[in-house]
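Hey, I'm writing a tutorial for new members on how sequence and structure tokens pair up, and I'd like a real worked example in the thread rather than a made-up one. If someone can provide the structure for the chain below, I'll link this post from the tutorial.
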Amino acid sequence: MEFAYADGLAVAEILAEAARQEVMPLFNALTESAVRTKASASDLVTDADEAAEGRISVALGRAFRGAEIVGEEAVARDPGLLERLEHAELAFLVDPIDGTRNFVAGVPLFGVMAAAVVRGEIVLGVIHDPVARTSAIAVRDGGAWIEHADGRRDALAVAAPVDVGEMEIVAGPTYLAEPLRSVVSRNLRRFGGIVSFRCAAHEYRLAAAGDCHALAYNKLMPWDHAAGWLLHREAGGTSAFFDGSPYRVTRRTGGLLYAPDAASWNAVREALLGE
């Protein structure tokens, strides 16, 4: 199954509509009862997450008949949904609000994400910014761009390669186990700058637009990364698991690194993970 520019626009509009109807009305307007915890105190879900995922799931199901819908909140209720990704003829991964902690805190750095997966291969990715009302869209082998609310479209391209000491990297040791946690904490000083938005949606958009050089992630739930992985790839970047193997949406351990090109990726890996 092939996807095209028009499909990207259709998915972007579904995400934008859910943001308009379910997310933005509750931004800076959440009651205490509208926020709950899941696996930990920092793992939050809100009424807006659940309502947006429901609206997106229904709309995608209507637009793409027969597609499996695998949403973050649905998986929290039924983890077995994740097993459908590898063999489904078409599945959509949905993150109704990426950056929920920012959303709850009233920080305007959150996004709505969806990725189309065909038999385990990511073929379409969309990251919508509800505040700026722009959508970053990537079509496999078809490029990546930002679609503005007024119809303007800007092509995306990763940053030009630079030495590690000049690189700005999105990274942190939060989800790493020892001894790698200590290694990464020590090695981050080798980079020119360190960034964290607590929101993969905006971090992927930053890298795909060439406004930072590298990304490093260890927590690999597929709805957090599928759309951004394709966006970065189609913007010209290189990525792989820490061990150098290519990203697969069904693998959830092993860490992910992103850089502008293969040589930069090797340099980032050595600088970040080397003793």
